[in-house]
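pinning this so it doesn't scroll away 📌
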Amino acid sequence: QAQLVESGGGLVQAGASLRLSCAASADTSTWDMGWFRQVRGKEREFVASISWSGSTKRYRDSVKGRFTISRDNAKNEVYLQMNSLKPEDTAVYYCAGDGLEIRETPQSVDYWGQGTQVTVSS
């Protein structure tokens, strides 16, 4: 089983930036990769995804223009640059990997990281 390990979460003020990283133990160079987030008591929701080549990126509407997903296939890493953070971005952020496609649902995701907490105060 491939392992995904997130890092970079923390507590920041509204308007601040964070950069999340996800390191994979397997070769993910042909995988779709993505990020989901979950607030306690709510459903896990799609945040962003990136195709294996990096040519296709998708974002949920609420983060467009603020978040940027990227990857470094040589390092088997994926990143989420989060700017202009808002309190409503507060959640546990999970790295996701799939050998075929990351869709805008947590179902069908092959691999998950353990999550990293992002807290944005007003």
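📌 and the second one:
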Amino acid sequence: QVQLVESGGGLAQAGGSLRLSCVASGGTFRSYRMGWFRQAPGKEREFVANIGRFRDTEYYGDSVKGRFTISRDNAKNTLYLQMNSLRPEDTAKYFCAARSSLMNDYRRADEYDYWGQGTQVTVSS
């Protein structure tokens, strides 16, 4: 079992930046494949980014490619999401998620075993 806690959300202006963090505890962080998802009211949970256990594989959703960067620091048991060039449509609650074994589709939320509580990101025009 692993517990995940996100932080770093808040209010940003369009074109600005935020960095989200997700601290893992209760498990072996380096063994988990990690992802970021987001969900706005009335919308489905959307894939944002995924990173492999050894930082050798990174994937991004089409809407954030070139703007967001996923990274991890296994020594600190922490996952990050650097968000640049923010847009109002990035407004959502952002969640980190973990998977302990190989998954078939990293873009599907139901492929992940563990979830954090989420952190709210709001981008103003």
